[in-house]
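Form 7-S
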Amino acid sequence: MIIPDVLPDLDTSQIIINLGQILIVIILFGVLHYISRKSLDEIGRRRGLDNRVINQIRLFEKYILYTIATLTILGILGVDLTVIATSVGVAGIAVGFAARDIISNFLSGIFIIIDKVYVVNDVVDIDGTYGIVEIITLRNTQIRTFDGNIVTVPNSQVANNKVINMTSGESKLLATTSVNVGYKEDSDKVKRILEDSAKSIEGVYLDEKHSAKFKQDELDIETLGYRVTIFYFVDAHNEPWITSKVFNRAVKKMIEEDIEFQRQAPRVTFTRSLGEKDE
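Output:
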């Protein structure tokens, strides 16, 4: 029988002492559980964590405390924990191997939350998935792309790939619009059209605090023109549509003002017909 080997004989006085110790353990771990929950609530409030994330951490914390409390009580009762530890160790290895992806996602989720790599409503690009962060859990991150799809990205994939956070908790995003024009065109005029076009679109922030910046680039030798790029702040959640409107408005205005767009330089090639000989 296993029970006689594991549980020792107990007299009445020892039972009373053990019950008292067990009661102390229950009270102690109850207090620890209460303090832990309050601490988690405070951390969640300060960091603005989603309630689902807090509930998952609570569940994880509860399982850990309950496991430690149970083992402590079994130790008080005189149970040989070596047998249990051996069995749990073997089972733990098997379970850990099978659940390694879940564990990896869980640990990555903790680091994402602690490091604040991104928060809900941030506009991010994770390994080519570009959109708005909808939900962050300990297992995955849900992103709503700008075409309306919900993409679930495992947190382990987030940890192992480059993450571009466009907003970092802000509601504005730095956007760009570029046009290629001919060499003879006045760059100041082109910049004015770009800035006026941006100002006319709702969702663009152009003021003393958010002024427009410009960049001018020479194109390759085969292109008869140069590129002008405007940098400006927009509503992050509507960036694709805003930049599209700015570009279309600028192109329309440039056509109205007879501004020539860049074009490819003609290629001149020399061919020799068959049978033709050098002089």
